[in-house]
Design brief:
It is an enzyme of class 1 (oxidoreductase). By secondary structure, this protein is α/β, with parallel strands linked by helices. The protein is built from 15 helices and 10 strands. α9 runs antiparallel to α10. Bound molecules: NADPH dihydro-nicotinamide-adenine-dinucleotide phosphate (NDP) and 1,3-dihydroxyacetonephosphate (13P).
Length: 333
Amino acid sequence: MRISVLGAGGWGTTLAILLYFNGHEVTLWEYKKSYAKTLSKSRENKLYLPGVRIPKEIRITHALEEACDHQHMIVIAIPTQYIRSVLSQIKKHDFSDTTFISVSKGIERDTLMTVSQIIQDELKNISPSQVGVLSGPSHAEEVSRKIPTAVVAASSDELTAKEIQAAFITSYFRVYSTTDILGVEYGGALKNVIAIGAGIVDGANFGDNTKAAIMTRGIAEISRLGMALGARPETFSGLSGMGDLIVTCMSRHSRNRYVGEQIGRGKKLKDILKSMNMVAEGVETSKAVHKLSQDHEIETPICSAVYKILFEERDPVKITYELMTRDMKPESE
Ligand SMILES: NC(=O)C1=CN([C@@H]2O[C@H](COP(=O)(O)OP(=O)(O)OC[C@H]3O[C@@H](n4cnc5c(N)ncnc54)[C@H](OP(=O)(O)O)[C@@H]3O)[C@@H](O)[C@H]2O)C=CC1
Ligand SMILES: O=C(CO)COP(=O)(O)O
């Protein structure tokens, strides 16, 4: 198959290489013209995936129209808040034979849309069966080194989910399938906010008990909000829910956990973000989650605490004790 990957960050580059070795004809689109040239020449993504060789057969380009022409699949690996501006440049293109696959994990700040919703909103002529998602516990640093990983391919159309599954599966990258596309997207986006909370626990020197509480009560609130937004409950105990929450809260590779850790140590958000070239989706997504939970009147105390720490400069230690001393309630609520 001809497959284009839009976004040459760590994840886009990793998946482009995986797809190439799976026998596909792969194009990798990079946002900056100068960096596209550097990548084409050096065949190493030193900024986002150092030490991994990009095969010379992968076409690297900055020309978006060209990258999208006559593709069977287009993989979107762009930070969520920039996806609409990229898609708006190709909205006139004929995509009647193309499937779009989002591998990005966030919610658009201004519209509160998931990535599959942004794709359908921006590219009016494509049907839901042309849209899918691939998500789960999968740090680029490990997949690019062929470390065994399991993820899930989702589309409201079962056949599309299975096509995506078949395109990506390898002996070290196991792909399951589901039709709960929204559940997979909400799990992937919301776990980033909880992972910032887990990082705060690390940075502020709370303990393992605290982190386990954040993760367990975190998946409870992800499920609560996700279900109110149309997701299926069982999806949140799967790879894209609990699975991705575990890896993101625990891994040294996680950028979201890192942001939280620095906040917990007393650093300012703007200084942390200035020092990072990679994206921590949970920061902007926490604004969207704050709004979604208010709009739908769903309690999301941990996400709400993360939002207040990031954007209202609330003290992480004080707010943790506020969480601990809320009204008594049954665990099932
Ligand atoms: N890294 C990982 O392990 C995983 C990441 N993801 C998800 O994949 C998505 C992409 O993340 P990742 O690959 O890690 O990204 P990185 O943090 O590695 O890189 C950021 C990317 O964003 C690009 N970018 C910056 N500004 C813009 C813009 N205005 N328009 C378009 N692109 C822009 C950068 O391009 P440039 O260098 O030219 O500025 C770069 O390619 C995220 O949603 C993330 O949550 C999902 C699973 C695993
Ligand atoms: O989604 C991821 C792993 O599954 C990547 O998480 P971070 O963006 O926090 O690094």
